[in-house]
Amino acid sequence: MKKKRFVFHVDVNSAFLSWSAVYRTCILGESEDLRRAPSIVGGDQEKRHGIVLAKSIPAKQFGIQTGEPLVSARRKCPDLIVIPPDYGLYVRASRALMKLLRRYSDQVIPYSIDEAWVIFDGFESLYGREQMVSLAYQMKQEIRDWLSFTVNIGVSTKLLLSKMAGEFSKPDRVHTLFEEEMDRKMRPLPVSELFMAGPALSGRLRSLGIRTIGELADADPEFIRTHLKRPGEVLQGYARGRELEPYIFTHEENKGYGNSMTAPADITEELYQAACRSFLELWDGRTPVRQIGVHASKTEKSRERQYPLFGRERQERLERLDRAVDDIRRRYGEDSVMRAAFLKSRVPHMGGGLDRERRTGVTAGIDVEKEGQGVSDVRQILCR
Description:
Helix content is 39%, strand content 15%. It is of the alpha+beta class. The protein has four domains: 5-13 and 88-184, Reverse transcriptase/Diguanylate cyclase domain (Alpha-Beta Plaits); 17-86, MutS, DNA mismatch repair protein, domain I; 191-239, 5' to 3' exonuclease, C-terminal subdomain (DNA polymerase, domain 1, Orthogonal Bundle); 248-297. A five-stranded mixed beta sheet has the order 5-6-1-7-8. It has a three-stranded mixed beta sheet with strand order 3-2-4. Helix 6 links the parallel strand 7 (151-156) and strand 8 (174-176). The N and C termini lie far apart (50 Å).
């Protein structure tokens, strides 16, 4: 008999803004908490094409959206507080979060810098749902107590449904979405709320008379396939509660276009090439691109690698190179090895964004992966 599992999806509320707010209030001693004011994390303010990377709840109340130009956001809220991103801080805060989550389970699957799945295999035979929901509340509170930021946690038995649950009302909430709750909690939602349903695909569905997730789930599969091809089939599967697949590469551009692909890849070069192929399949070569987001989910070492006829030696060399680079960075820090293209660049090689000179000394010195440092020390570093 197959063991059942519970899945938590943990998502940091307004991650970039929350992490910056914690740093500014707890370390710099600022009195104003950015999370309680109309504020955003934005791109380069000196360039007119900067965009909103993260927003506070008060900023959202002005109609400000993630991905919109700074110029537009300022029109909506003239007193808007705009702060620059600090990717070094974000990486370290993310690591602190992942480290805390691994105290609960050895199966933690990062989905992005600010969200992850935590899987509890076989727990349904030991603990009931009420106990697991209580555990989710405990996890949420521990994150708030130790790291000083809030998260949403979705609880289910599937990756997809826990992800959907985590997107329900925010911030600082726990929601459940089990299969028997789909009719009540998921089907009535607008189709745009479905995982991977970007603005462009949602718009096409609405033009076909499909406005809710339930209507998409009930639609004739042949009708969906005819009008929306493979993306429509995948989306309809999600509407019916189908589980997420491994090795999903997705590309999103802030006008709402998206693409995804699957690939057995566990080498840096392979991941890069897969991301490039995904983008080139989508882009027409002419339309200006303001922002691109690329992520890989459920990555693991491929068990079914098929080597090219004359490329096995190169693949094995790349595997050894990746292992060596990872080992050096674990021992001596992320900056001990970098690609030559970043040597004289003002862009940090592990994240992009602000140049190293603009980071504060305290932020640059945080290292939650330092040997012997427990989770209990992380908050002392971030908030002393």
